[in-house]
Amino acid sequence: MSVKIRKSLVASALVGAVALTSSNVMADPLKDIHNVEGQTIKAAQKSQNKIDNVFEQTVELKAEYDSTVNQTEILKVYNDHLARLVADQNAGIESLNKQIKEIDTTKRNVVPLMYRMIDTLEQFIKADVPFDTEKRLDRVEKLRELMTNASVTTSEKYRQVLEAYLTEKDYSTVVTATQGALNLDGRDITVDFGRVGRIAYVAQSLDLKNAWVWNNSTKQWDKLGDEYLSPITDLIRMARKQKALDLVELPIFGAE
User: Fold this and answer.
1) 57, 151, 218, 239: least surrounded by Cβ within 10 Å?
2) 132 vs 125: CA distance, rounded Å
3) Is residue 228 a contact partner of residue 250, using CB atoms and an 8 Å limit?
4) Are the C-beta atoms of residues 234 and 226 closer than 8 Å to each other?
């Protein structure tokens, strides 16, 4: 073998060795790159999973926060409503306490007033035209008994006193006729009494021949002339609904 051939073989061997060496050297970096890429992908997946978990937690926390905010707003509105109710109730309680104090004061003032009203009513009846006097004075006596009855409220006592006054007022607006005894000169005569409110109180004998009128100034019965016999008869019949209401001439004393 010539020297030229051996050099060629040596060169070929060197080239092959270099090529083999180069092939090994190129293979290792690619593998490393693939390994790094795989690790990067895995790391990215882990990071993404963490991000997804964090996002889900954030969404849940946001929902809880929104719910809490809404609930807080609702509670605030409700608390404001309760505060207004409490304020109104406190105002009502204050008003009731004030009224209770006023009621106590009113009671202290109204009780003496009722006693004065009862006394005045009795004096008025005794000074008035003497019709149903016994019944009217009996009503006054019952009012006095009522005032000392602890089981009856002050308001009910006051109501009954006012009712007695209204009853007396109504006597001034009615036309009535009753039969009874008229005492004249120490003897009783059965007569028909006729009354027009408080302006005329007359009596007529049952035989229609005599008539009298009550004189509240002198507190006695005055004999009437015959010209009043027929009008008084008509008055008594009208009061008993035996005759239609009509104008009649009656003896009336002027107010003093």
Assistant:
1) 151
2) 10
3) yes
4) no
- 């790094």: which residue's tokens? 36
**Which residue type occupies 232?**
I
Q: Are the CB atoms for 125 and 137 separated by under 8 Å? A: yes
Residue 245 in tokens: 């209401």
**Residue 157 and residue 151: Cα distance in Å, rounded?**
10
Cα–Cα dist 130/163, whole Å:
20
Radius of gyration of the chain (CA): 60
**Tokens 């004393």, located at residue:** 253
CA end-to-end span of the chain, whole Å?
Answer: 184
Convert 91-105 to b/e letters by CB count within 10 Å (16 or more is b): eeeeeeeeeeeeeee
Q: Residue 124: which residues within 8 A CB-CB, separation 6 or more?
A: 168
Structure tokens of 169?
A: 């007022």
Which amino acid is located at 26 in the chain? M
Q: Where are the beta strands (DSSP E) in 60-174?
A: none
Quickly state the pLDDT bin for 75 (edges 50, 70, 90).
confident
Task: Dump pLDDT digits (tens) for 11-70.
Answer: 444 444 444 444 444 456 667 676 777 777 877 788 788 787 878 888 888 888 888 888
Which ranges constitute the DSSP H helices of the chain?
3-127, 133-147, 154-170, 229-239
Q: Is residue 115 packed enough to be buried (19+ CB in 10 Å), middle (13-18) or exposed (0-12)? A: middle
Token pair listed for 35: 């390994």
Q: Are 252 and 197 in contact (CB under 8 A)?
A: no
Give residue-wise pLDDT tens across range 132-145: 999 999 999 999 99
Give the separation between CA 178 and CA 191, rounded to whole angstroms: 9
